[in-house]
Amino acid sequence: MRKSINYFKIILFALLFAGISLAGYSKNAVTSLKCEYHVNPVGIDVAQPRLSWQIAADADNFVQQAYEIRVAETKENVAKGSKLVWSSGKVGSSESVNVTYGGPAAKPMQRLWWQVRIWDPKNKATAWSEPACWEMGLLNASDWKANWIRFGQEPDNTISRPSQYFRKEFSLSKKVAFARVYVTSLGLYELRMNGKKVGEDLFTPGWTSYKNRIQYQVYDVASMLGAKNAIGGIVGDGWYRGNIAFKGQRSYYGEKSALLAQLVIRYTDGSTETITTDDSWKATTGPILESDIYNGESYDARMELAGWDQPGYSDSQWKAAVVYDYGKDKLIASQGVPVQAIQEIKPIKLIKTPKGESVLDMGQNMVGVVRLKVKGNKGDKVVVKFAEVLDKAGNFYTDNLRAAKCTDTYILKGGAEETYQPRFTFHGFRFVKLEGLATEPTLDQVMGIVIHSAMTPTGSFACSDSLINQLQHNIQWGQKGNFVDVPTDCPQRDERLGWTGDAQVFSMTAAFNFDVAAFYTKWMKDFTADQLESGRVPHVIPDVLKGEGGATAWADASIIVPWTVYQVYGDKKILAEQYKSMKAWVEYMHTRAGSKNLWTGDSHFGDWLAFATNNSSYPGATTEKDLIATAYYAYSSRLLGKIAAILGNPMMQNSIPIFQKRLRRHLSMSL
Fold it and tell me: Is pTM beyond 0.85 here?
């Protein structure tokens, strides 16, 4: 017993000694390094990117007193602090978000490594952070050596067309040190190399104002290369030339889809090689007969091109790709948050409806597609339909989808079990109906694939009230379903557009739930691209309604969303970049309000979110629209004045008190 007590004393003494010795040791550290809101981004086009970091402190009320950033061309050099490209030196500042890199502008495709350390309130420096990096993309049209290519035999442009397949084989005889592929499309693309998909992103290159801005993506493919290689791409209609909006319009941005890809390889001996899309590539169509955002995808497995994306495939029946003279001056590096498959959901039960239909219940509404497993004879057709709700009688209900067919069709090749998952469409649904099966569907035949922009959650919330917890879950789930590269109004019917009013009302909530800084930064640049010369802002961004717009609360997103990003993330750059657009919108409102500064008579949506119903152009929108228009005129003008002061821009603010005075008078008269 005495021996045990002695051991206990020894252990206790050791612990106390350790605690005393560590008391003077700082555990403060710099973590979570980001560049332009991304972790180690590959392919940016910001010459002086902004750097951010987080602080892990061992004391409460810790305030950074100073920081130092160092940058080098290699990870080894930055870690040693040698051959630096730039060093900030010790900067007395508490700033740790969006600190601008002050070194020489990086060159196209150049990678730079960086570290940061900080000083605590006692003027003690932390250790240097782990190295992080950023890599530049192709910065000018002249950096692109590739040509746009397309499949030459285009069918009727008034209907959904088969997706196009492109491929090329090449051999390598040297050891690869670096390999990047720069790729985009007119339409939606999936890039493949040596039998595998390149990257995890979906719906690339993303939805932008294609007539002004087309994003490209950059992928590190060094590990995918071998001695013999095949690179290929599939291009579908997507937002570019598929059905868009609710007016039955197609090919809003263009009638021809195309692929653009540039593979840059650097060998260990210092030499380089570039493989580009040109007329040496082969092209054809394949099993994807139709792909449409609203109507769904049709896939005929009998037409599969087995091994088409691998070396050694015989493409003698394919046609030579046609070079398409489209230009590259609209190309920009990706700026937002990529869309990805985030989660899988299993159906919870099989329902037999009063009409005798078999319907799978996913257990909750979701946005994405289903992965189908099926076995049957060659030529059998399975039709997959989607619905958000059942009607009052309990039957499958799709009237709310309007003109959107929301239907995927799979034609079997026959034999063993087959698996199908659409590439270029998505649906909003809870219920799934399978037609054409020889037997009753089973729960394991379908897996729901949840798709949305891969936003990082800011945290979590829970309380003792289960109803509040469910409400918060619903809000977050709704945000995921409506943040599919742009903030949409709905994910199911023939719409799914970036309605500006919906987004501005929700912007602060969106930022509370997820990191949306990069998401909104990308979207706001399309405001500038699609804003009319008069300053009027379209109802939806990207604009597919041919310039329709100018409604208050909707167009005011051009000011309110950047202001939200500034409030949440301290981002002055978005204010500076959007300032011209914001000012143009306020000046447009001023022309409509006139000398009395009361905006009356124009068409607006009004109080779209009101609960009460009454006689109105929209149920619930009973508040006087002139009042709402004038209120937003005053509010956005005030915000513009604040933004001008933050940016140090000259701004006439004398009119703001007049807005407020006349608004108060208007309010008293209305009441």
Answer: yes
